[in-house]
Structure prediction request, 273 residues.
Amino acid sequence: MSTDTQSSDGDEPLTEAQLQARVEELEDKVATLETDVGDDQKKMTIVATKGSFDMAYPPLILASTAAAFGWEVVVFHTFWGLDILHEDNSKNLQLSAVGNPSMPMPNALAALPGMDRMATKMMQKKIDENGTASIEELIELSLDQGVELQACQMTIELMDYDESEFYDEVTVGVGAATALQHMAESDVQLLI
Amino acid sequence: MSEAFDITETLDVKGASCPMPVVKTKSAIDELAEGEVLEVLATDAGSMSDIDGWAQGTNGVELLDQVEDGDVYRHYVEKTA
Prediction:
């Protein structure tokens, strides 16, 4: 019936030392949980699937801005979205004039040869005048801010790209499972 | 314009548009010490809402003031932690 033994069989009232130990144990546990979930570290995963000039902007603008908020950001680039990370192709992305209701021309005209190039030139001019960054600048900016830009391995092979053709620091060798894992852990998931 | 605080650094992002004002502000704040104040000069009209939103959603910064000064938007951000 000693009151200061370490063992506590159910019915015995706990000693002060035991209670103290229990409180410390719980405090440790709470601290661990707070570190795990309570640090309001937000995460975002964007899946970038489009490789046209206009559609390359939203993922990079959102990614770099989210990183400025201190969020952990992953952009998974697949199919045409891969061109955004492709060093040469990213500088030559085209705007589609056909099927674009914002174009001041009918589809029959927009389908003529050279129209995509012209529409892209017009857009590029507007972007320069507006002080909007280039795709290349946004990629550098995103990487500087710690955004992880991932290139889908399956699409790299499908498109016959070589890993060396992508911007340095782009993550290769990842697939859908990696993307899903990030999505499951994220507060924000976007498909663009 | 008289401010009730000392400006430590000034960041000039005039001419740059979204997302540059916010992202550059973040990078500039990273270089400051606690209690120091960054002045941001921007011409992007969206910067009023964006820098406010960024400051509210970011730990360790406080937006002290925003002033529309002709074509230039002035933002004052303190690093609080």
